[in-house]
Amino acid sequence: MIDSILRLAIERRLLILCFIFLIVGVGVWSYQKLPIDAVPDITNVQVQINTAAPGYSPLESEQRITYPVETALAGLPNLSYTRSLSRYGLSQVTVVFEEGTDIYFARNLINARLGAVKSVLPPGLEPEMGPISTGLGEIFMYTVQAEPNAKMATGEPYTATALREIQDWIIKPQLAQVKGVIEVNSIGGYNKQYHVMPDPAKLLVYKVSVEDVVHALQANNDNRGAGYIERNGQQLLVRSPGQLGTVEDIGNVIITERDSVPITVKDVADIGIGKELRTGAATRDGVETVLGTAMMLIGANSRTVAQDVASKLDDIQASLPEGVVAEAVYDRTALVDKAIATVSKNLMEGALLVIVVLFLLLGNFRAALITAAVIPLAMLMTITGMVKTGVSANLMSLGALDFGLIVDGAVIIVENCVRRLAENQHKNGQQDLRERLSTVFDATSEVIRPSLFGVAIITIVYIPIFSLTGVEGKMFHPMAATVVMALLSAMVLSLTIVPAAVAVFMNGKISEKESIVITKAKSAYRPLLKLALKFRWAVVSFATFLVVFCLWLASTLGSEFIPQLNEGDIALHAMRIPGTGLEQAVEMQEILEKRIKAFPEVEKVFARIGTAEVATDPMPPNVADNFVVLKPRSEWPDTSKTKDELVEEMERALEELPGNNYEFTQPIQMRFNELISGVRADLGIKIFGDDLDQLVLTANDVLKVVNGIDGAADARVEQVTGLPTLSVIPNRTALGRYGLNVAELQDWVSAAIGGESAGIIYEGDRRFELVVRLPETTRRDIDRLKFLPVPLKNGEYVPLEEVATLDISPAPAQISRENGKRRIVVTANVRGRDLGSFVKEVQESIREKADIPPGYWLDYGGTFEQLESASQRLSIVVPLTLLVILGILVMAFSSVKDALIIFSGVPLALTGGVLALYLRDMPMSISAGIGFIALSGVAVLNGLVMLAFIRQLWHETGQFNESIIEGAMIRLRPVLMTALVASLGFVPMALNTGTGAEVQRPLATVVIGGIISSTILTLLVLPVLYQWVHRREAMQHTLRHRE
Fold it and tell me: For 700-758, what is each residue's pLDDT tens digit?
């Protein structure tokens, strides 16, 4: 089969070469369709259900909304788990489904259940599903600001309310049209409202209640249609307009009349444009602003969507009032471009190094070109494959591509053809076409099997990565998929186009000058090999010792999931005391930002405080997410300063500001950690139980233990208590005396203090709420609230304190649940130490020192979970794969002995990888593990090519020891070439410091270290083992000859 393919390729060589144009054409077309991203999107299949419940305390939100919703969702098909958060005025339930569930199917299921649960929820509350986006969906943020001298139409400077109106009614509707944007989320400024603020004294004088005002406004704000009438053959529509349009209209509404004098709204109340009771704010560079976030539809291409949003925002600029600017502050494209630049730089440099090596070692220009041509062709075929399988180009998917491995097969074939063609020319002079073609055919078929076996083995080695599931699967599947596609492409090319090209282009005089490198290597290698064969005991025992030593060394390296990607920006989570008001938080935030902005490395800083309009990421008003965008490195005063040093300096500077507590992380990393496990840190210790007070006690106990452990940073308990609450507690007896009931009192308190909606005022497309509530001065003064007049049935009034007591006390600030059980989380990040050993120590210390009461239990989450599940999975699958490779080798050589000899290359290759990690002071991570997987393939490939040759020579000549030495000498060049080519392909990746290089560095380090050790050992240990295992056979062979 293989021979007939080769024969076809060589006989129809020009036709086969024409296929190159097809590959290039399809490849270039696919490249334009290729989705590009910084990192694979690892969000699990999840749906958020948000219910806004104005005025509900956390306990009530949990009891009335969260619990019924959670119960209704139990038992959904493919449900993995639920977690929820109940805060003041908000209930959020996050439903996580198993991998592979279709998100639209999941949302349909939830929709059906929510329909059924509405009857159980308090009236007027609507649970809504969050946008169909992922954790990486926040791809673009912009601020809306007014220039210092800009004036509104009224001649006054722009207010926060006016800016928010521009964002909501001019910018947002246009951005929402961009393809791939599912939601534009606004935070900051104030929603415009029309406020009617009754004066309690005037209400008393006119004997009017707040309810009367609300009813009057509702009854006087509507347009009605009354059908049509026909008159003289003409149709007249009949309508009765009565809609309120201006502040004057509202003031003239008549509430009632006393002694035939009408009492209007303006007699008892002040009317004006007011501010909503908002849940969140935004600041930028120390000034309050309006922040918009474009969220991307799940599965869209983040780079194109972000670019489209950016260009749309430029277009929108023309439609904004003069002096108002919408300016991008965070654009995912920047990170994506940097990451892709890192990858393409690695690939380009790797390709160049590979080509240089080929020229140097093949000593023939045309041969080197043919081999090098495999690189772009295989790459184009891979891109086509990626587009077809929906793999995006990102750090992970392109991170393991090594052109050295890709051209391995081609190198072996071309090298052998050149050698055979040159030999034949020496013997018989110039060859004619027929002879040349048959030489090429023989030379290729001689090495094609080991070369194909090698590629197949490297491909099989990547299979265990496909067994990873969950987050780690999403992280590493693209990597394995691209490598396998690239290797298969190279395999097809080396079967068809490479022999065809050799047949066409290697004509005329074939010069095979041994380059100086090879000559020197050969002269050094022969004596070394003879020495090794002589002292074989020493060689084998040294190799064994090395393997054992490296196994021990590997266990001391420590472990982490994936090295942190340096995104180039800093995210800073600032926390204040629970109960801090939003306005106070904004003031503290402005001071904080001015301090950060003072650093010369900082370009801009902006923040979200509290919860946005769509609560995708709900925070209380005392918490702020700060985004610090840094200038390019070249503009830093001290370019040698690392980002970590800058973060430390910032930490020291910010600690001086009172009342704040900080956590430093990065924008994407912060969302990733939170999405994966609901925890914003490397390690989250979840404590489950029923009683909130007991949970807090236990959590503080655990925190003490964690803080005592070396390497713990930012350790804290989530803030769940300390929300100050003013309770108006009804006095039932007194209410009964005055003929009132609890509901009437509650309605009155909620209308007077919280405000009650009395309809909507329309201005063209825009719509604003009309709200009746007490003036701010009265609402804020608790002593005056006591004397508020409560209306009685007979038209008399009684002060509030007669029928209720006012009490201020702290209450829970938030209640978190997971799988229907309350929980509290202790979080910690790890600095200056690897994650694996840190978690082990934490678990042991908690077991010994912490006091966990019965009925309460712990669970560990955070990125550490992924590390653990990936390691467990790989520890089963990797040995299986190695067995499969062994099986293939046994099939290839139909001898278990030979297969085991070749297989000995694997542990020897791993020694180099472990040493390289140790020397560069890197922990074991899943990235490094994948390096080891790739290595075992390369190691086997080298041994395979060498052994196949030695065996062939021995069978041809019958000289055992000479065959070993000669075979090793002849295969020195291809072995050195494949090794150099494969390791040099990774050199740029190991040394690069660009954005995202951290993720690739361990992988490249392992491969380079391993290839060096495996090459040295292949060249020396393999022949020794072969001689040792087969010497009996060889003796019998010689004896038979003599007889």
Answer: 999 999 998 888 888 888 888 888 889 999 999 999 999 999 998 998 888 888 888 99
> For the chain, what percentages of helix, strand and coil (3-state, to nearest 5) are there?
55, 20, 25
Handedness of CA 207, 211, 214, 215 (dihedral sign): negative
Q: How far is CA 262 from CA 255, 266, 530, 898, in A?
A: 7, 11, 118, 109
Q: Give the separation between CA 902 and CA 100, rounded to whole angstroms.
A: 40
Asked if residues 492 and 9 have their Cβ atoms less than 8 Å apart, the reply is: no
Count the neighbouring beta carbons within 10 Å of the beta carbon of residue 474: 18
CB 917 within 8 A of CB 557: yes
Nearest in space to 1031 (alpha carbons), one of 944, 969, 961: 961
Compute the distance between CA of residue 743 and CA of residue 751 in angstroms, rounded to an integer. Answer: 12
Measured at the CA of 984, the angle between CA 983 and CA 986, to 5 degrees, comes to 70
Question: Encoding tokens for residue 672?
Answer: 């990733």
**Cα torsion for 403, 409, 413, 416, to the nearest 10°?**
90
Instruction: Kindly state the helix (H) or strand (E) to which residue 413 belongs, with its residue range.
Output: helix 403-428
Categorise residue 609: left if φ over 0, alpha if ψ from -120 to 50, beta otherwise.
beta
What CA–CA distance (Å, rounded) separates 464 from 626? 40
In 3D space, the residue among 209, 233, 236 whose CA is nearest the CA of residue 225 turns out to be 236
**Which residues, listed in sequence order, are joined to residue 51 by a DSSP beta bridge?**
91
Q: To the nearest whole number, what is the mean pLDDT of the chain?
A: 87
Beta bridge partners of 225: 239
Buried b / exposed e along 860-897 (16+ C-beta atoms within 10 A): bbbbbbbbbbbbebbeebbeebbeebbebbbebbeeee
Residue written as token pair 């391993």: 1010
C-alpha R_g of the chain: 37
Contact 965, 526 (CB under 8 A): yes
> What are the phi and psi torsion angles at 83 (to 5°)?
-135, 155
Strand 924-925 and strand 559-560: the pairing is parallel
What would the two tokens of residue 675 be?
A: 């999405």
SS3 category, 80: strand
Beta strands in 232-323 (DSSP E): 234-242, 254-258, 261-264, 269-275, 280-284, 287-296
Kindly indicate the confidence band of residue 676, based on its pLDDT and cuts at 50, 70 and 90.
low
3-state secondary structure of 535: coil
pLDDT of residue 358: 79
The predicted pLDDT at position 129 comes to: 94
Structure tokens at 983: 């390791």
Residue 677 pLDDT class (50, 70, 90 cuts): low
Q: What values do phi and psi take at 294, rounded to 5?
A: -90, 130
pLDDT exceeds cutoff 70 at 670: yes
User: How far from 767 is each of 46, 171, 471, 503, 928, CA to CA, in Å?
Assistant: 33, 16, 43, 77, 57
Q: What is the C-alpha to C-alpha distance for residues 480 and 490, in angstroms, rounded to an integer?
A: 15
- What single-letter amino acid sits at 62? E
Q: Which residue has the higher pLDDT, 459 or 324?
A: 324
Checking phi first, is residue 819 left (phi over 0); if not, alpha (psi -120 to 50) or beta? left
Confidence of residue 1043 (pLDDT cuts 50, 70, 90): low
555-612 pLDDT tens trace? 887 777 777 777 778 999 898 888 888 999 999 999 999 999 999 999 999 999 999 9
Q: What is the pLDDT of residue 351?
A: 82
Beta strands in 78-159 (DSSP E): 79-87, 90-97, 128-129, 138-146
